[in-house]
Amino acid sequence: xNKTTAAITAVGSYVPDFILSNxxxxxxxxxxxxxxxxxxGIKERRILKEEG
Length: 52
Hints:
This protein is of the alpha+beta class and 52 residues long. It is 29% helix and 15% strand. It has a domain at 18-47. The chain has a two-stranded antiparallel sheet with strand order 1-2. The radius of gyration is 19 Å and the shape is elongated. The N and C termini lie far apart (46 Å).
């Protein structure tokens, strides 16, 4: 029986520079930091503003 093998040869990551915090989000929609954090656990999210 032949054995097929595979290997991970590289990994990568990228984190966009722009941070959309819950405080900024509060000004855009009718919510607040406490509501978002208590339900999602999210305090900030990284947003890619331009493709690149």
